[in-house]
Structure formats: structure tokens, C-alpha cells
What we know:
The protein is mainly beta. The protein contains no helices and eight strands. It is globular. The termini are far apart.
Amino acid sequence: MRKFLTLAAVGTLLAAPVFAQTMVIEFAAESGEGVTVSLADDGTYTATDGTAGTYTWDEATQTLCGKSDAGEVCATFEGEATEPAVGVSRAFSDTAGLTGTATIIAIEE
């Protein structure tokens, strides 16, 4: 799995760059790869593939950039952002060449 798939989560749904909880998002790439990622409101993430790092969100361009020991990759999301809610999905493409759908599976306080 390409490492940035784990970083693309926050941009899936956020209408604003800040949220007051942890979002757990499942990414399904068209290639069949998948990963679940937890994004904290302090700008850090952890993923089921073992990666961890920091992320930034650009609301104007609907682009999320993530940094880890593996480097930086950015993902852009299609359509308009909505309020985060369990079950909401958005299509994405990233600078590593992956495309697919990201779905919020949990929002934790």
C-alpha cells in the first residue's frame, strides 16, 4: 500500500480544517489496496499499515498533504466537502497515483 493513502483521510469530508474529535476513515483504492486511518484533531495520524505522521488541510483546494518518514504526498478530493458524518464518502486522487473512495467509519470524542 502506498503510504499516502493513509494520509488522505481528513480531506474526504471536512468543510473546515478543524474538528474536535478523532475521525476513523477507511480508504479503498481502485487498485484493490486499502487502509484504515485515524486522524486526530492535533494534526497527527496513525494507520493500520503502521505509518504515522502529521497532516495539513487546504480547504480552498480540497487538498490534504501528509508527512511521514516516507516523505510527503498530497491528495485532492472531488466534489464539495460536507460536515463529517459516519458513512459519508468522497472520491480522491493523490500525487502517488492512487484513486479511489474514502469513507468515514467512526467519529470518536
